[in-house]
Inverse folding.
């Protein structure tokens, strides 16, 4: 029994081998052994959150900012169930994450013991994979396998359920080297024949458009994407997850498509003759409705690392499985040979540049009126932050204002909950991002409703010295739902009025954080400066009008180019 | 819409059956039958799944199955080149008058008599599921007391390549 390594020693040893330096966690009875192991540990640091949801979102933000696997842990029962939202959030956005959960001793499993939850069963449909470790002999194999699954192929969350006795028992079994699964061998190398056919179609196209999804960011393929777009003279539109895949100030960048995307980008989808979609899963928020008429004139090419996404939502002419970076590099190789390619797309390229210019003008010029609006605040943020700054968002109008107006120049610097749309993601994700990138400015563009769901993490940020800035676009409403009620439900604001509770400045101060209220346009920049200079986590309470809307948008049931509220778009 | 037989080789890990059936229900896929049995490979089981759908749906099911970590191999079996079997145990009401008639029909279907009581006959049949459907239909005329079917299992035929020519 006393031979070999204890389970908890195995966990820490494996974490070190995976190069993990931070865990976001919260203890409990079933996790005391593991916390005990971390007590004197200096290479792997536990960051004590104040709610397990904060832990999983922080690990998620850490992973998005760094590309490395994020790690969190929670105790059995309520600790594990508090992770649920964040696990699905990470899996839906293909974020590499490993979560350790405590479990009652193996002998007690199935007896409805105190704080027993069927974590294995509950997390099965919301993770990429999960494990219940029944013997310490299997522990190192499981952990190494979990990290492999989380951060290869299409990435995602993996749960390791760790019974108390498995943590405490010792074992001589230790798996060295890579773990192999008979049924898991993600195919990342694209088929050369299909690549050649696709390259040919792209060369022939006169109006090529690239739709860039989060897969490009996960594959670190942004630089290559820009090159490909330049070779082709193709416009580049992105999904929410793809924001940052191309510098948004690049003349070929068209911005975000979809329900809350730019009119120009959406229209280009339906007027291009070749649509190259990479690392995107055609979510309904990207495609709108009426899918029969999505990109009706285009040859559709869809490249994704997950073959099950091909032909799932939209039937395409050329499906291709593969890692985005390999796909793009190989396409460039084929296309490079044709020097005259660029000429043929001249008119189209001009149109792309023109649309880019118009949106840029609209989104960067100063408003004449001096009302404090989300546009003005985010434009000021654009100018204030430096080029390495990371912006996270909550969910709602704040998120879509950020997606519209925040000009993202590099990958991994715009972090937002896409697939699940989780309110309360942005602040803990900002904490995680700051831990991963301590030298970068980190700012969460927040809504009052969302921030209140996770504001207890102010304690984490103060205690652990993680100085991020929360910019609350405070409209005293669950604004996005209210907007739908205004536009589509006769202004019946049922269940969406939050009022002016709480006083966010006092809330911040009570945690020892910096707080400041901003009511005038002229004070935005100064407040940002105060916050970043304060050296502690800060909350800026921007008082904005209650009934502002984020427009244009595709109304429910509308096609991708059928946007409403396009009044200010010059090119409509 | 067509019927598809899918044969899946899957690693024996705790929960792998739940993971597969969970995927079907979560993705709104209807399955007619699912059987699990040991395979020739140690530590692996074979599942046979019968489902219906159009070409795109069937393709979707194949890909989703392949995504499951424990799934080692997915075989889409063609009915025409596979041996397909279902086993049925059936207890039918029989009295003096019709007993001989029932036995005659059972023989015609190559069904075995496994038990006889004063009021019932119990029959066993292993056959292509469609043949069993027809058998069960016929037996309904006499009144079925109990019916059990194991679900379909299938294996591909090795088609020898013709030499020469
Ligand atoms: C956890 C969660 N609950 C509910 C929703 C539905 N929802 C989407 S946006 C929104 C309003 C968000 O309000 P706030 O954070 O104040 O942002 P605003 O839209 O006002 O900018 C709600 C309730 C959600 N996305 N996530
Ligand atoms: Mg709000």
């Amino acid at each position: 029994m006393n031979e070999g390594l204890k389970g908890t020693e195995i966990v820490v040893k494996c974490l070190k081998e995976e190069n993990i330096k931070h865990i976001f966690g919260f203890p409990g009875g079933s996790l005391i052994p593991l916390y005990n192991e971390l007590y004197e540990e200096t290479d792997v640091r536990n960051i004590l959150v104040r709610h397990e949801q904060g832990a999983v979102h922080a690990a998620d933000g850490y992973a998005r900012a760094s590309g490395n696997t994020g790690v969190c842990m929670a105790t059995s029962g309520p600790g594990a169930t508090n992770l649920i939202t964040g696990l699905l959030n990470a899996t839906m956005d293909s974020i590499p994450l490993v979560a350790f959960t405590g479990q009652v001793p193996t002998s007690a499993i199935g007896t409805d013991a105190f704080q027993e939850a069927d974590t294995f069963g509950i997390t099965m449909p919301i993770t990429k994979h999960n494990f219940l470790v029944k013997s310490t002999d299997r522990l190192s194999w499981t952990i190494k396998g979990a990290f492999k699954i989380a951060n290869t192929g299409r990435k995602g969350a993996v749960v390791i359920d760790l019974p108390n006795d498995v943590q405490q028992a010792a074992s001589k079994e230790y798996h060295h080297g890579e773990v192999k699964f008979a049924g898991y061998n993600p195919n990342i190398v694209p088929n050369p024949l299909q690549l050649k056919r696709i390259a040919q179609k792209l060369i022939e196209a006169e109006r090529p458009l690239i739709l860039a999804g989060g897969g490009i960011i996960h594959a670190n393929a942004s630089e290559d994407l820009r090159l490909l777009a330049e070779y082709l003279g193709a416009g580049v539109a992105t999904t929410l997850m793809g924001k940052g895949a191309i510098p948004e100030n690049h003349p070929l960048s068209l911005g975000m498509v979809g329900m809350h995307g730019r009119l120009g980008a959406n229209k280009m989808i339906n007027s291009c003759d070749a649509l190259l979609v990479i690392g995107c899963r055609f979510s309904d928020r990207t495609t709108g409705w009426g899918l029969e008429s999505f990109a009706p004139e285009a040859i559709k090419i869809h490249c994704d690392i997950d073959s099950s996404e091909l032909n799932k939502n939209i039937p395409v002419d050329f499906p291709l499985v593969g890692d985005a970076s390999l796909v793009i590099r190989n396409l460039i190789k084929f296309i490079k040979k044709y020097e005259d390619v660029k000429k043929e797309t001249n008119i189209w390229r001009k149109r792309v540049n023109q649309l880019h210019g118009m949106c840029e003008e609209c989104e960067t010029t100063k408003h004449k009126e001096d009302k404090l609006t989300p546009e003005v605040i985010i434009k000021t943020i654009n100018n204030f932050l430096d080029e390495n700054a990371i912006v996270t968002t909550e969910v709602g109008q704040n998120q879509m204002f950020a997606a519209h107006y925040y000009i993202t120049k590099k990958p991994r610097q715009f972090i937002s909950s896409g697939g699940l749309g989780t309110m309360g993601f942005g602040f803990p994700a900002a904490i995680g991002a700051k831990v991963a990138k301590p030298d970068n400015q980190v700012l969460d563009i927040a809504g009052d409703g969302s921030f209140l769901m996770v504001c207890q993490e102010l304690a984490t940020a103060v205690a652990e010295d993680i100085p991020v800035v929360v910019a609350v676009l405070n409209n005293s409403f669950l604004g996005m739902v209210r907007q739908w009620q205004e536009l589509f439900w006769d202004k019946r604001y049922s269940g969406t009025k939050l009022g002016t509770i709480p006083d966010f400045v006092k809330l911040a101060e009570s945690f020892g954080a910096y707080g400041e209220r901003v009511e005038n346009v002229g004070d935005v920049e100064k407040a940002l400066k105060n916050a970043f200079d304060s050296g502690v986590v800060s909350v800026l309470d921007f008082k904005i009008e209650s009934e502002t809307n984020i427009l244009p948008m595709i109304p429910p049931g509308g096609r991708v180019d059928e946007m409403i509220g396009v009044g200010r778009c010059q090119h409509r | 819409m067509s019927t598809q037989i899918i044969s899946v080789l899957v690693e024996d890990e705790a929960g792998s059956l739940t993971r597969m059936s969970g995927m079907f229900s979560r993705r709104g896929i209807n399955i007619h039958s699912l059987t699990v049995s040991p395979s020739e490979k140690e530590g692996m089981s074979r599942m046979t799944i019968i489902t219906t759908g159009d070409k795109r749906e069937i393709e979707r099911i194949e890909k989703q199955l392949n995504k499951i970590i424990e799934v080692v191999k997915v075989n889409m079996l063609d009915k025409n080149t596979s041996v397909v079997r279902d086993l049925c145990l059936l207890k039918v009401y029989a009295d003096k008058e019709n007993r001989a008639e029932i036995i005659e029909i059972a023989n015609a279907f190559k069904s075995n008599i496994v038990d006889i009581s004063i009021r019932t006959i119990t029959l066993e049949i292993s056959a292509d599921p469609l043949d069993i459907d027809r058998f069960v239909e016929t037996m309904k005329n006499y009144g079925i007391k109990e019916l059990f079917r194991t679900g379909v299992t299938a294996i591909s035929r090795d088609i020898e390549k013709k030499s020469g020519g």
Notes: The pocket of magnesium ion (ligand 2) is lined by residues A 447-449, 475, 477-479 (CB under 6 Å). The mean pLDDT of chain A is 95. Chain A touches chain B at residues 120-121, 124-125, 129, 132, 134, 149, 181-184, 306-308, 310-312, 315 (CB under 8 Å).
